[in-house]
Write a sequence for this structure.
């Protein structure tokens, strides 16, 4: 991470990957805030003020728990990705290249992933403590008042995932 066009084009639905680099957490409320800000900025003819740059970045649909003593972060498992589907096409159009979560995506999101050459990864639900062991650095960068829905900047190392939808719109497990 961040994802490049060259890396994205090498990924195929069903590929098992280890993700390393920086990802940003964002769940329902943050997606709504970003969506509203982009639309307001467009109407007002200004550049949107976003909590992190979208271009080339990956969003992890995750709401980390407070960190226990001696740990970088608390549990950091994925949340259901489809809750962000109504916001995702706009974020992809604005340059977002990767999403990491769990569950299926809508036909509109699958189409937008292919149109904007992005990728959707899934990781293991119910394994938040294990996935947290792949986080090497964590800090809240926006909206701390949202608690677990704040935006975190996470540095991750070898977080296991599967390419669920590749840049051609192919879906794992059925390839459709």
């Amino acid at each position: 991470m961040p994802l490049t066009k060259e890396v994205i084009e090498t990924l195929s639905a069903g590929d098992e990957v280890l993700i390393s680099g920086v990802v940003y957490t964002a769940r329902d409320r943050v997606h709504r805030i970003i969506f509203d800000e982009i639309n307001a900025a467009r109407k007002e003819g200004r550049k949107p003020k976003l909590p992190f740059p979208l271009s080339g970045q990956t969003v992890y649909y995750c709401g980390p728990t407070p960190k226990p003593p001696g740990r970088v972060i608390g549990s950091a498992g994925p949340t259901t990705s489809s809750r962000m589907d109504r916001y995702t096409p706009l974020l992809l159009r604005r340059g977002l290249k990767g999403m990491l979560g769990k569950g299926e995506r809508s036909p509109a999101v699958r189409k937008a992933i292919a149109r904007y050459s992005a990728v959707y990864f899934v990781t293991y639900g119910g394994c938040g403590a294990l996935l947290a062991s792949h986080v090497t650095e964590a800090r809240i960068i926006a909206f701390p008042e949202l608690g677990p829905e704040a935006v975190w900047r996470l540095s991750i190392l070898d977080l296991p995932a599967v390419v669920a939808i590749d840049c051609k719109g192919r879906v794992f497990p059925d390839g459709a």
